[in-house]
Amino acid sequence: MSAPHDVVIIGAGFGGIGMAIRLIQAGFEDVVLLERAGDLGGTWRDNTYPGAACDIPSHLYSFSFERKTDWSRRFPPQHEILDYLRHCARKYGVLPRIRFGTEVTEARFDEDEGRWRIATGRGDTLSARILVSACGQLNRPVLPPVPGRESFAGASFHSARWDHGTDLDGKRIAVIGTGASAIQIVPELAGRAARLTVFQRSAPYVIDKPDRPYRGWEKALLRTVPGLHGLSRARLYAQFEARALGFIKYPRLMDLVARRFRANLRGHIDDPALRERLTPGYPMGCKRILLSGDYYPALTEPHVDLVTDPIDRITPGGVRTAGGREHQADVLVYATGFAATDFLAPMKITGRDGRELNEEWRDGAVAHLGITVSGFPNLFLLYGPYTNLGHNSIIYMLESQFRYVTGCLRAMRDAGLAWIDVRPDAQDAFGREMRERLRSTVWAAGCESWYMTADGEIVNNWPGFTFAYRRATRRPDPRHFQARIS
């Protein structure tokens, strides 16, 4: 076993890279990042499908301490976000600290020594005082439990594992799913496929996406005029933050967004029968609201079919739906989302007294402020339970968590503590508050979504304003923790 490190971070996406930067700036030099893939970037490394882009405006999608002013578009494409993360890792000295191709399989806390023992898929073991999970919520692709998947004779892959070696031109392509990835993929494939079949289980709400390239003079002004980018960032933040009122407090405000949906649908879809199939049967905002200006037009192309009949099975030649109709396909794309509520799975995390985290979370994940878990000392989660958003940039939430975790580590260093562990009563009180507040949000309005566990418990989303979360995490409260002196 190697000598113990101060901090080991699992994952090298936005959370891991940003956390490492902030810890290094705070004087914690012995920081190591373990990344299972061969490159950094997290979800922006994995999702390279055609049309991949962000649905948060560019000026909100960078760290506050490293603002990017030269985005090419109002909504950033995948490759620019990945390049930005690589830039941050190089500039702030994080890149040499990343161990690529190193997947964590297990971590066990040694209470006597106050150390985490971390086992990897490479067969080695590391030791660390502090363990930070920056795995994110959207990192484990899910394939639907449809019979016959293995029998398909053509190329098939999940949208987050795109096979760029597959020739798509002139092929019959089937896309299963109509979520955030699918609405970006479908317009791209419509321009290449001989026949494109889209299988929809439930219709999403799709509103117009006001995207366009930045003009040369706009980029020049952003680059040269002091404060202009900051003003744009602040305006967008306030505009998006106001949308939280509809999600968490006054669901009837969603009617204003629903008007945009209806206008977008009417503006692109003339066929009343198709419009009906594209109209969701659940309240606006209950599931993720999607942004696109070209999804609906793609569905009107003569060689594109929208199928709403339930899928019966996958066959060697395509997809069979209820009633026995078979839809022929040469390529099958699963745009079927992620195991978002499993959080740290499939890693085995063992805390004090042999407590296993997945067992502790069998009825739904919970963590105090979405960051610390009782019984698991010196373990910190980034983008954990109750920290996802439906209305603003997740980077703002991550930066709140960076400050909180750094504050915990500084307090431990100053007080000479071996470990800290959030008190069960503090965690339980936070969990009760979250469950109570979430019951009155639009996410609990009667639909199934990736925000929920199989039992219908919402465990992903923050039921409040992002500035309220920042205030709650401005500094760790010593009353919330128990500790052991070194």
Automatic annotation (TrEMBL):
Protein name, per record: NAD(P)/FAD-dependent oxidoreductase
The organism's taxonomic lineage, starting at the top: Bacteria, Bacillati, Actinomycetota, Actinomycetes, Streptosporangiales
* Entry-linked Gene3D superfamilies: FAD/NAD(P)-binding domain
Pfam families for this protein? Pyr_redox_3
InterPro entries, A to Z: FAD-bind_Monooxygenase_sf, FAD/NAD-bd_sf
Tree of life domain: Bacteria
Coiled-coil spans in chain: none
